[in-house]
Design a protein that fits this description.
The structure holds 2 protein chains of 2 kinds.
Chain A: H1 2-6, H2 8-30, H3 34-39, E1 41-50, E2 63-68, H4 69-79, E3 92-105, E4 109-122, E5 125-140, E6 143-153, E7 160-161
Chain B: H1 6-12, E1 13-14, E2 17-19, H2 21-24, H3 26-35, E3 41-46, E4 55-61, E5 64-70, E6 76-80, E7 95-97, E8 100-102, E9 109-111, E10 116-118, H4 127-131, E11 143-147, E12 150-154, H5 162-166, H6 170-178, E13 185-196, H7 201-206, H8 213-216, H9 218-226, H10 238-246, H11 251-256, E14 259-261, E15 267-270, H12 288-298, H13 300-308, E16 311-316, E17 320-323, E18 328-336, E19 339-349, H14 354-367, H15 375-388, E20 396-398, E21 407-409, E22 413-415, H16 423-437
Antiparallel strand pairs in B: 1-2, 2-20, 3-12, 4-5, 4-7, 5-6, 8-9, 9-10, 11-12, 13-19, 14-15, 14-22, 15-16, 16-17, 17-18, 18-19, 21-22
Classes of the chains: A alpha+beta, B alpha+beta.
Chain lengths: 167, 439
C-alpha cells in the first residue's frame, strides 16, 4: 500500500495513468465501442454492480450485474442482435468519471477509487445514476488493464426500470 | 363507477379476447384496486422474514402500504401503514425489529398488533379520542393466513378461505417447500425491485407464455449460444449460459409441455428444460450431495417423488408468480394503470448443500436481475404492449391461441391444448370478471 501513497512522484504518474485508463473506458462506453471496451479487461476480470449497499460478496446475495469475462462478452454480443429489443436503439450515455484516487497498490495491481455520474437517454426518457467505483488495475504486457471493477450505485436498492447499458 | 357496470365489464371480457381498456383505462384500474386487489388473497411475505416477536416488514397490498409484524403472542398481523391521526406512515423501513411504531408527526404510538398505546397530550384532542382509543389503532387487515410459511392477507373481511382460494395451486407451494431437506425454505439473497411502464397484468400473462421466449429473448439466446460451451470444472457463467440457451428451446418443446389453470385465475407450467444441470430430477451428478441429504431426511421413495415434479412458473392471481425449481418468488405491485413494480425474492432450501443456494443466486441474476440479458427484454416488450394499447384504432386484445382446445384435467385443473395455449390469460380474465362484477 505504502509505496504509492507515500511517494508523491510515483503517485502522480500512477494516478495520471490510471485516470487515463478510466477516462478511456468511459469514452469507449459512450461511443458504443464495446469490443474495444471489453479489450480493456483482463481474461480473469470481474465486473460487479452489487444489489445491496456494503454487499460483501456476489455469491450469497444477488447482484444487479456480476459478470466474468464470458458473461461480459455475451452482454456485448447481445447489442449486435437484430432483435435485441431493449438495446435497439442502444441507450446513449454520458459517463462522467471524477474524484479519481489511488487507494492502494500491492505491487502488480493498483486499487483506484472514483465517482461516476452517468446520464442515460433512451426513448424519450433520461435517467441519472451516481456511483462509487473501485477498479483494480493490473500491469500486463499489453499495458494497464482492468482486473476488477465494482460499481456501487447510490440507488442500487431502489425500484429500478430495466438497465440495458453498462456502467 | 356507473361507467363500468356489470354488463359493460362483461362485454369487455369475451372468451377469446378482451377490450384494451382493461390495460389502459385509469378508471378500470381504480375499480381493480377496490374489487380485485381489495378482495383477493394477496401474498405479503414469508414467515422467515419475521421470525421473532417484534420483527416486521413493509410492503403493499395493491396500492395499500402495509406493515406485516410478528406480534408478542407470535401471531402475524398485517396493518395499514397510516397513522390514525393525520395519516403519516408510521414505518418506512423495508424490514426491521421494534417494540412499537411511533408516528413521526405528533408521536402517536402503536403496538406491534396496531393497537394505540399512547397519544402525547391526549387531553388536547378532547374526550372523544380518549374514549375511542381502542378504535384508533392502525387499521388491521381483516384476514391473514399462512400456507407452508407463505403469508397471505386479504383486505376483505369475507370471502373464500385461503385453502379454497389456492385449491390445486397449493401443490406448487408444496413443490417449493418439499425440496428442502429440513422441510423449510427461507428468504435470502436480496430483493430485486424492477419497474416498468405498463399494466400489472402483463407480467402475470408473460410468466406462463411459452411462445414468447423465442421472440422476446432471441438476442440473449443467440448470444449465449455463441458463448463457449459449459465445461468441467464448472465456471460461474455456466448457469447463465445454460438458462439463456434453454429459453431458445424449439417450438415443438414449448408446444409439448403441460400448462394448467385452476379456479381464481391461478395456473402453472411444466418445465421445458432439457439440460440436466438445471433440473434436479434429471440425475446430474452435481446434485448427488443434495439428493443424498433429501433422501436421508425424507426417505428415498419420497425424495424421488418430490424431485420428479418438473414444474416451472406458477401464478397466484393476482399478485404473485413463483417457482420451486430455482426458488424464486415475485410479488406484483400495481401503482397505476401503466406503472408496475415487481419485487423478486430468492429462497434458501434449509438443509441443502451450499451449491443449491449459489445456483439460486446465479439464476436470480440471469432472469430477475434489473440489468439481466433476459428480463430487460421482457420489460421492454411490456412497455411496447402498453404503448400499443393506448391506440384507439383497435379495441380488442386477442387471446385465442389454443381456444377451444382447453380441457378439464385431474385434480380440478384445466389443461391447455398445447404448452403455448393462451389458456392462462383467458383463465385470469375469467377470474378478473368474477371479482369485478361480484356484489
Amino acid at each position: 500500500m505504502g509505496a504509492i501513497e507515500s511517494t508523491g512522484v510515483a503517485s502522480d504518474a500512477a494516478l495520471r495513468e490510471a485516470e487515463q485508463l478510466l477516462f478511456r473506458e468511459a469514452w469507449l462506453l459512450d461511443q458504443h465501442r464495446l469490443d474495444e471496451w471489453l479489450d480493456l479487461f483482463t481474461e480473469d476480470a470481474t465486473y460487479w454492480v452489487p444489489l445491496e449497499r456494503g454487499q460483501l460478496d456476489p455469491w450469497n446475495t444477488s447482484s444487479i450485474i456480476f459478470d466474468d469475462r464470458t458473461l461480459l462478452q455475451i452482454r456485448v454480443r447481445q447489442y449486435a442482435h437484430p432483435r435485441a429489443h431493449a438495446r435497439l436503439p442502444a441507450a446513449r450515455t454520458c459517463h462522467q468519471v471524477c474524484n479519481v484516487m489511488i487507494l492502494g497498490s500491492d505491487g502488480s495491481e493498483l486499487r483506484v477509487g472514483s465517482s461516476l455520474v452517468l446520464v442515460e437517454y433512451r426513448k424519450e426518457r433520461q435517467r441519472v445514476f451516481g456511483a462509487s467505483v473501485e477498479h483494480r488495475l493490473r500491469r500486463t504486457p499489453a499495458g494497464l488493464r482492468v482486473a476488477a471493477k465494482r460499481v456501487d450505485l447510490v440507488n442500487s436498492e431502489a425500484e429500478l426500470d430495466g438497465i440495458a447499458f453498462l456502467f | 363507477m356507473g361507467m363500468f357496470g356489470r354488463e359493460q365489464l362483461a362485454m369487455m371480457v369475451r372468451p377469446d379476447r378482451v377490450h384494451r381498456a382493461l390495460y389502459s383505462d385509469p378508471a378500470i384500474f381504480e375499480l381493480e384496486m377496490q374489487r380485485l386487489f381489495g378482495r383477493a388473497w394477496l401474498v405479503v411475505g414469508h414467515e422467515s422474514q419475521i421470525p421473532a416477536a417484534g420483527d416486521f416488514l413493509t410492503t403493499r397490498m395493491g396500492r395499500e402500504p402495509v406493515i406485516v409484524t410478528r406480534h408478542a403472542d407470535g401471531t402475524v398481523k398485517v396493518m395499514i401503514n397510516r397513522c390514525s391521526h393525520r395519516g403519516s406512515t408510521v414505518c418506512e423501513d423495508a424490514r426491521g425489529h421494534c417494540a412499537e411504531f411511533v408516528c413521526p408527526y405528533h408521536g402517536w404510538t402503536y403496538r406491534t398488533d396496531g393497537s394505540l398505546r399512547f397519544v402525547p397530550l391526549a387531553h388536547g384532542y378532547g374526550r372523544d379520542v380518549e374514549r375511542k382509543k381502542s378504535e384508533l389503532g392502525l387499521v388491521n387487515v381483516p384476514r391473514v393466513e399462512s400456507y407452508r410459511g407463505f403469508l397471505f392477507a386479504s383486505l376483505a373481511a369475507d370471502g373464500p378461505t385461503l385453502s379454497d382460494f389456492l385449491g390445486p395451486l397449493s401443490s406448487s407451494f408444496d413443490d417449493m417447500v418439499d425440496r428442502a431437506p429440513d422441510g423449510e425454505v427461507e428468504v435470502a439473497g436480496g430483493v430485486f425491485k424492477h419497474a416498468y411502464h405498463g399494466n400489472w397484468k402483463l407480467v402475470l400473462e408473460n410468466h406462463l407464455d411459452g411462445l414468447h421466449p423465442n421472440y422476446v429473448h432471441a438476442s440473449s439466446v443467440q448470444a449465449a449460444r455463441d458463448a463457449p460451451d459449459p465445461a468441467q470444472p464448472e465456471r460461474y457463467a455456466d448457469i447463465a449460459i445454460r438458462q439463456m440457451r434453454q429459453n431458445g428451446a424449439p417450438e415443438a418443446i414449448w408446444e409439448s409441455i403441460g400448462i394448467w389453470t385452476t379456479d381464481f385465475g391461478h395456473g402453472y407450467m411444466a418445465d421445458y428444460h432439457s439440460d440436466s444441470r438445471l433440473v434436479v430430477g434429471m440425475d446430474n451428478p452435481v446434485f448427488a450431495g443434495y439428493r443424498e441429504r433429501l433422501e436421508h431426511k425424507i426417505g428415498k421413495e419420497r425424495a424421488a417423488k418430490v424431485l420428479s415434479v418438473t414444474r416451472w412458473n406458477s401464478i397466484v392471481y393476482p399478485n404473485c408468480s413463483f417457482m420451486g425449481q430455482f426458488r424464486q418468488l415475485r410479488i406484483v405491485h400495481p401503482l397505476a394503470v401503466d406503472r408496475t413494480i415487481v419485487y423478486t425474492y430468492s429462497f434458501r432450501l434449509k438443509g441443502a448443500p451450499e451449491q443449491m443456494y449459489r445456483d439460486t443466486i446465479a439464476f436470480a441474476n440471469v432472469v430477475n436481475g434489473t440489468a439481466s440479458w433476459v428480463l430487460t427484454d421482457d420489460l421492454e416488450v411490456y412497455e411496447r404492449v402498453q404503448k400499443g394499447l393506448t391506440a384507439q384504432a383497435g379495441d380488442w386484445v386477442y387471446l385465442a391461441r389454443g381456444y377451444g382446445g382447453d380441457a378439464d384435467d385431474a385434480g380440478r385443473t384445466r389443461r391447455g391444448a398445447t404448452g403455448t395455449s393462451e389458456l392462462p390469460i383467458r383463465s385470469q380474465f375469467a377470474a378478473w370478471l368474477r371479482y369485478m362484477t361480484a356484489e
